[in-house]
Amino acid sequence: MARTFDIAKMTALDAETLAQIRSLAYEIFNRSSQTRAKQIDTLISNVIYHREVIQDNDLFAASVAVFFDSAFSCILSQKVLRKSELYNFFVILNHLPVLESSSFYAEALQILAPFFRSDPSLIKLFDRLQLLCVYIMIGYFDAAQEIAAELEGKVSAKHLCFYAMYQLSKYQLHSAASEVAYMLKLLLDLATQVCDQDGPEATLYLITHWLFSLKWFKSSKYYKALLYNLYEDIHQQKGLNAAMIGYELYSLDDKQVSPPEKMRYYQDLIQYQDYILNSRQLHSLHFFAGNYLSGVQKEFRASIQSFKASNYYLHKCWERLIGISKYMRLHSNPNNYKLGMNYLDEQFMQLSNQTSLRNNSYVENLQMNFDKIEELYKEVGELSLTDSLTGQRNRRFMDNNLLQMIALAARHNAPVCFAIMDIDYFKEINDTFGHLAGDSILAELGKMLSKEFRQSDIIIRYGGDEFLLVLFDTEPKSCKIILQNFCNKIDKYPFKYKRKKIHITLSIGGWCETLCKTYQLHELEDLISKADLALYKAKEAGRNSVNILF
Prior knowledge:
The chain is of the alpha+beta class and 550 residues long. The protein has helices at 7-10, 15-29, 36-54, 57-76, 85-90, 105-118, 121-138, 141-151, 160-176, 180-197, 200-212, 221-234, 240-251, 259-269, 279-295, 300-331, 334-368, 377-380, 395-411, 426-433, 435-452, 476-492, 521-540; strands at 415-423, 458-463, 466-472, 495-497, 500-502, 506-514, 546-549. The chain has 23 helices and seven strands.
């Protein structure tokens, strides 16, 4: 295959060493190899020897580059054995956990349905594997280790998709613990098994993600060269591998990939179907394009469209984090859920910063083009603080305004109650009566909330069918009575959609506290997570109930 970069010529390795490394890679990834196990042991020994004895970073980086270049060539030279179920399954790993609120949910069900139909026990296994991946993703490794140990010996290699998901999770755990020999053995055994049973596409996915995980290698001159060569070879296929490699190239710093190059990768990547890339990746791409188009190319209208798209996917990022919280609440024990929320707080903070950054960039773009504001007035409405369906405040209001109101209550030592309200079995309502019926109920519930609560109380549509209520100057007993009365009223209220009566109930969890200091954003999120934990207990108690903690 033609290569833009000749990796071997970029190194100072002699011909004999080059031949040995290439032979090692080909023996490991050649399906007909008779010495694979021995070569894997040799590779691991060489890596450990370098780390412990030689410690020549330039020599090691050159050897790693030649090894991966040879591995890619060997894998790409192989024929596709069959339509790869595993390769399709790997799309799911970019969207974990699979949430009903996700735009990817329908595609995920289509991929997973054949497995679940053939073996219903895989549904429960998949839930545990998802929780394992979630804990790793948020950095809660103690809980991840518990689940990995629980699943040891229970994930059979005959179900290759779930086995690969489990092994990749173990690889990440051992990588976090810097257990080099074990994680190399684990990944290489998995990759060669996949190479033999499934074919080159899934194998290439595993090897590129191995390459992505080598943080120390990303600053070398070889990293971009390897990715660029591989992207040239496969980007016309428009598959998962090409998307992941293209996004990795786009993500390199400006010293390695210039803004015009990043823009070219952006133009390639947005042509993929939405479900290939996740909401975080799509937000990043569109946000970059918005800034680039407004600042460099002076294409104001195009930049506004990119900012709109970035705002949409930023909203999806919020929904995903809320969904992760809900998923953890449903599938974790209370203690792990409570501790897990502390790890999730950092991601909430990062996303909050992204929200502010996006809004600032959007406003700066408008200011630079003030003469065109009237023409684009509707786009400015994206910065509204009101949820259009329910009429209540949205999460942007919480991020920008709620902290100041809490600080005011703290100065006056006023009791505050944080309550999370959730419609019981809302998915079943959507499934039975349709999503328009669900929207109708949310709109009606929003009106009832405005009538039942004081103007000084804050009501926020927190996500999906969840509302966050902040009741100021309210003692726990009074809060319990107020929320229970509203819960009872909803239980008796005749919701209707197209003349069909729809009965709903609410579960409400609350946390009451008298504030006596100025709260920071992460402490505010902690108060909300306590209300979320109370909601979890209300659900456990049978739903249609109110649980107040203080």
